Amino acid sequence: MDFGRLITAMVTPFDGDGEINWDVTSQLVDYLIEEQKSEALVVCGTTGESPTLSDEEKLQLFSFVLEKANGRCKIIAGTGSNNTKHSIHLTKEAEKIGVDGVLLVVPYYNKPNQEGLYQHFSAIATETSLPVMLYNVPGRTGVTMSVDTTLRLAEISNIVATKECASVDQVTLIASACSDDFRVYTGDDSAGLASLAVGGYGIISVASHVVGAQMSEMIYAFTSGNVQRAGEIHRQLFPIYKGLFECPQPLPNPSAVKYALSLKGLPVGGVRLPLISPTEAEAAFIEALFH
Asked: Which positions carry the signal peptide feature in this UniProt record (predicted)?
């Protein structure tokens, strides 16, 4: 399974009552594929506000986005949680729907050790025939999956990739030791070019909601050997990468990118509590990033 090099971790559009806005979700899928050049979409990941979505909403989203994409890009379902049994259940349901793969986050809050992480992911992987992508994001989970654990999991036949958010060092070490058919993605937009340079395969991005076409050009330039052009694009986009998260005080993802999408004419709505939308000052800062 090749998920492509540019994957968007898709936001979940909400209406004024905080319910899923299906009309805007349809528009967003078209926009991300056709205009922003996403080769795959992660549905119900962290950026999709998975902690505040019910299982019913998640399964509806998997089905809706899969049908809307209609083969134009791969659909990766966020089915991971800190409950192994629940993750197995949701993964099986996603497989019935027909998604192309699943994203499984490192369990949060209960802080398993490395052996617990191995057993968690291997238990889920053995219960599905879908391609599995691991997701190491210690800033959100409180646990870092080690390079050794990642490489050990990569030996399981349907664990085919990892989304690595710990550091470029981790990307380097995994890419140096894994097999050629195991794909290493960075989940940090600002580390995208550096990760490609040390052997990463692609980027699972938030900023690609609004600058995906440029990011796609950057990746193509790098993989085609035009490193100078890739560097130019990275430098142009760097303030947007940083601004969407730092904004001017750190703003929880996806609050900023949802506001940025509204500036692009896509009314994806606000966020569900406990997240909050940007303040007036933060909104002005986000607007300035695109002028």
From this structure: none
